[in-house]
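User
Class, as today's exercise, I want you to study this protein, comparing sequence with structure tokens, and judge whether sequence predicts the tokens.
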Amino acid sequence: MPFHQGRLIDHVHLRVSDLEASRRFYRAVLEALGRAFTSESPEHFACDELWVDRADGPGSRVHIAFQARDREAVHAFHAAALGAGGRDNGGPGERSYHPGYYAAFAFDPDGHNIEAVHHGPAERSAESVVVTPKARV
């Protein structure tokens, strides 16, 4: 049975205690997954649906799973996460969630549980969804 990805979440907003530590961590793990920041300033950084800025109070604790193109990208993610100040929360390997679920986990500098997952060979109907805003009338 086919399944859909990328339809549920509009964006994820992380409020972090150390923006520069998080910037280093996310730049490294996203580059390992073949992605780059899509927006960046001294006050924030973003990649597609992920937006990160400095918390003016307590940070949040969330779990985010990034899509990986293959198992090698899962390994690259995990190595990059640990090399950029992340803490191990489960090395690359098969998980029992469903057949073909191959993932690795790391805690980011604020303790968010960040995952890279590859669901096995699949054909996508499109690389991404393109949204073109219409002018307001």
